[in-house]
UniProtKB/TrEMBL annotation:
Coiled coil: none annotated. One of its GO terms (cellular component) is U2-type spliceosomal complex. It comes from Stephania yunnanensis. This is Uncharacterized protein. Belongs to the CWC16 family. GO terms for biological process: mRNA splicing, via spliceosome. Pfam families: Saf4_Yju2.
Amino acid sequence: MKVLTMIDHKASKSYGENIWSFSMKSACCKHEIVIQTDPKNCEYVIISGAQRKTEDFDIEDAETFALPADEERSILSDPFYRLEHQEEDLAKKKEAEPVLVRLQRVSDARHSDDYALNKALRARLRNQKKIVADEEAVARKIGLGIRLLPGSEEDSSMAKHVKVLIQIRQEQEK
């Protein structure tokens, strides 16, 4: 969303913190949106012109990790719990290791020689620029303002067909 104008000013004070108010115009509909800080809840509050959109997502679909809750964090910091579950964690690591090694090999193969890849890419771009320059020179020689693409078999057959149709119409008019 492109912000056309944005004005910020202090609205008041709450809990010893400044409450800031921001107003901006939406680029799509030109309505004014007013947003205000909420230090008590540590978030922003939409005052007017918009609605809060909350999207829930499945952790697996988003391909992210679930953050542990407070109780789980305290359990994970317990040394005895970690010692008891260390074997399970090592088994999980061994299961995931072949996949990680395979991904690393693919990544190394793709990015093995950056210089050679860059050199080939630059050479291809230079050739494309030469072809475009040649096409533009041919177009200028003919007197066209645009470049012509290379001809094909289909183009030549269509041109012959058009010539035959023009000759037939000219003979009919006589």
